[in-house]
Amino acid sequence: MDFELSQRCHDLQQSLRSFVSETVLPQILKYEQKSVLPRKIFRNMGTLGFLRAHVPIEFGGLGMGTIAYCLFSEEVSRAGAGMTHNGHFQTIKMMTGYGSPAQRDKYLRRLLDGEYLAATAITEPDVGSSFASMKTTVKRRGKAFILNGIKTLINDAAEADIVNVFARGPDGGEISVFLIEKGTPGFKITKKQDPIGMRSSPIYEFELRNCTVGGDQLIGESGMGLKAFFSAFNFSRLGNASASLGIAQAALDRTLTYLKGRQVGNHKASEFQGLRWQMAELDTQLAAARLLRDNAALLEEAGRDISLESARTKLLCVEVATRVVGCCIQSTGRFGCLRDNLFDLYYRDAKVLGTAGGSLEVMKNNIARRLFEGVGT
Ligand SMILES: Cc1cc2nc3c(=O)[nH]c(=O)nc-3n(C[C@H](O)[C@H](O)[C@H](O)COP(=O)(O)OP(=O)(O)OC[C@H]3O[C@@H](n4cnc5c(N)ncnc54)[C@H](O)[C@@H]3O)c2cc1C
């Protein structure tokens, strides 16, 4: 296995890094504090090709593979994980995997250009981890589908041009996925919520009341929601993991620079052995987590089932990020305690990544299930 970045991926990483430093970081706090989506920045990311880098060439992408998506999530998260817009990437994944040619013609180019933004809606007031007990229903009427229910905690739902909604039905108890365009009658945003983290990707509750869409808005076939979910979420959990790496690396880099410049009495803070050893340990944990992510990305790219690898990767990367950022706050004294230095944003985002997109407990359940499979009693 080759974990060396190709020249194209290396160039992508450098472009992302410059873009984030020059364009995103100087203004991120204004979006983060008010929980507002930086739509112009999102559009720029599309124009610069960042949203399409990982997508196969036959679908209008640059064909750089899953690792390009990971690099995107990692680099933009230097300005917080709210920049990763996972719902958008989940929608692209479902559309390339299961969308009809007509759906791809209508939406895909716009999603890859950043002209359109997409959101993914699964969670309901009474349903989070327990995906299978979803209550939103869909009924067939002629060639149309009618959806009813409430979705909550949905990133970018108000700003999105299309929301892919998971609902139970129309044939029996299985779950199906529908593309609902902004402005469709019966789709109504009812609440803006106030999360502790990932605030530059606002979250909303919305209601579907007899929301009617044509048969051409069903992704794939009816009843294949679970399949679409696993394909999109095994992929996007690598995005969650990469976001964690980006946050942790940004915190560590800031800490090293600060400690090197900080005079404490007769010493530079970077001379204290306790701090030096701690930095060495954090760096090692990050390097190990990144290797696990790279391995999972290669397997995903090869079309393998990565349900185990994506759960392990998300679990380790989020736990490492939380530890790294916490230690960086402690090691930098007053510097880590000031909001301008972004450590609190990184910490809050790392904590949210432990819940959004599938909680760490659910990741552990997925891993444990595989561990005990085939073990005799
Ligand atoms: C900021 C933010 C953004 C989000 N964005 C989206 C979005 O865009 N789209 C979307 O659909 N959803 C979104 N979510 C929802 C998210 O996916 C859910 O919060 C998550 O799946 C957990 O569900 P829950 O909060 O209902 O926790 P619950 O399912 O109520 O779980 C409560 C606690 O029990 C644990 N737990 C649950 N089941 C088990 C089990 N079997 N064994 C052991 N422990 C268990 C959980 O890990 C958690 O600690 C977002 C959430 C947040 C916080």
Descriptive account of the structure:
- The protein contains eleven helices and nine strands.
- The chain has helices at residues 7-24, 28-34, 39-47, 66-76, 86-98, 101-113, 225-261, 273-301, 307-331, 343-353, 360-372, and strands at 118-121, 137-141, 144-155, 162-168, 175-181, 187-192, 203-214, 263-264, 267-268.
- The two termini are 36 Å apart.
- With 377 residues, the protein is of the alpha+beta class.
- The chain folds into three domains: 7-117, Butyryl-Coa Dehydrogenase, subunit A, domain 1; 119-223, Butyryl-CoA Dehydrogenase, subunit A, domain 2 (Beta Barrel); 226-372, Butyryl-CoA Dehydrogenase, subunit A, domain 3, CATH 1.20.140.10.
- Bound molecules: flavin-adenine dinucleotide.
- Residues 87, 120-123, 128-130, 153-155, 195, 198, 203, 352, 355-359, 361-362, 365 line the site of flavin-adenine dinucleotide (FAD).
The share of residues in helices is: 40-55%
Distance from N terminus to C terminus (CA atoms, Å) equals 36 Å
CATH topology of the largest domain: Butyryl-CoA Dehydrogenase, subunit A, domain 3
Instruction: Figure out the total of helices.
Output: 11
User: What strand order characterises the main sheet?
Assistant: 2-3-7-6
Number of domains: 3
* Low-confidence regions: none
Mean pLDDT: 97
H/E element order: HHHHHHEEEEEEEHEEHHHH
Strand content: 15-25%
